[in-house]
Each structure stands twice: as structure tokens, then as C-alpha cells.
Design brief:
Elements: H1 2-21, H2 26-36, E1 102-109, E2 112-119, E3 122-127, E4 131-132, E5 137-142, E6 146-154, E7 160-168
Antiparallel strand pairs: 1-2, 2-3, 4-5, 5-6, 6-7
InterPro entries: PilP
Protein name: Type IV pilus assembly protein PilP
Length: 176
């Protein structure tokens, strides 16, 4: 008898659940059908692809800007008539960039003008003909207000060009 009751209970449950599913969301289904009946999907066409055209690299004979061989003195492809002397011994103030040097004093030794330059808290005495800075700068004039240098700078084409630079006298206002 318990099997029979179980079968009857299951049948009633299936009929109850079956009746709930049909008409409950009918208005929502109808609205969806009306809203989407005129819609059509459109995708824009893809842009036309142009074929790849290879370009030959013809700069094999030019100076490579990423190699240190550009600064090699044996490389005289550029030059422009100017070339620094790579074989001379370097002077002490050539180890410093010109921007880090300070002209702090001026004096005469006989008839020769000398400048006093401060580099890393040490003083150096310079005269016309001495080298300073990292661009092969040679001192061409010293007076009470400035030290004038002629520098040799290499351009991107490999040519060496002259550039005039100067160090201005630095006034110290210590009050001592």
C-alpha cells in the first residue's frame, strides 16, 4: 500500500508542476518576439588589407651610429678637415664635463694670464693652450671674467666641427 501512495503522490506532484510552466511568462515572450522581429545584425566590412612591400636597406656603407668605431681616429670617412689629436696625453681637467668646472680666480704670472678652476673641491691652475672638458676643449683666452675654449665636437654625420664655449668667473658671496 505504501508503494501505491508513493506513486499517487508523485503523479499529483508532476501534474502540479506541469501546469505551472506553460502560461506564466507568456507576456514577456510575446514582447521579446515583437521587439526583435525587425532587428537584423550588421557588421561593418573589414578594411581592405594592402599587400606588404619589402624595402631594400641600402645604408650598408654608411657609418653605424650605434658602434664606437665612429670615434676611431682611423675612421676618416667624415672629418671635415678637423680631427682631434687622439695620441696626446690627456690633461687632468679633461676628465670632467665642462658644466661641472667652475672658474673661481684669475692671476698673472709675469705677463702670462692664468685661471684658477675648481673641480671636485680641488683647485687647478690653467693657462692658454691647456685642455679642459670632455670635448677636446683647448683654452684660447683667459681674462678677468671668463675662460674661452675652442672645442671639437663630432656631428652625427661623422664630421668634426669647432664650437666656442666659455666658463664665466663665479663670484662667491661668503662675506668673509
Amino acid at each position: 500500500m505504501s508503494n501505491r501512495r508513493l506513486a499517487i503522490g508523485a503523479s499529483v506532484l508532476v501534474l502540479a508542476l506541469g501546469g505551472c510552466g506553460d502560461g506564466e511568462h507568456e507576456d514577456l515572450k510575446q514582447w521579446m518576439q515583437e521587439s526583435t522581429k525587425d532587428l537584423k545584425g550588421r557588421v561593418a566590412p573589414l578594411p581592405e588589407m594592402k599587400p606588404y612591400e619589402a624595402v631594400a636597406y641600402d645604408a650598408a656603407g654608411n657609418i653605424d651610429p650605434f658602434k664606437a668605431a665612429k670615434l676611431n681616429p682611423a675612421n676618416k670617412a667624415g672629418g671635415g678637415g678637423l680631427l682631434p689629436d687622439f695620441n696626446r696625453p690627456k690633461e687632468a681637467l679633461e676628465a670632467y664635463p665642462l658644466e661641472s668646472l667652475k672658474y673661481v680666480g684669475f692671476l698673472y704670472r709675469g705677463k702670462l694670464a692664468n685661471g684658477i678652476v675648481l673641480a671636485d673641491s680641488s683647485l687647478h691652475q690653467v693657462k692658454i693652450g691647456n685642455y679642459m672638458g670632455q670635448n677636446f676643449g683647448i683654452i684660447t683666452n683667459i681674462d678677468e671674467t671668463q675662460i674661452v675654449l675652442r672645442e671639437l665636437v663630432q656631428e652625427s654625420s661623422g664630421d668634426w666641427v669647432e664650437r666656442v664655449s666659455s666658463l664665466q668667473l663665479q663670484e662667491t658671496g661668503d662675506g668673509k
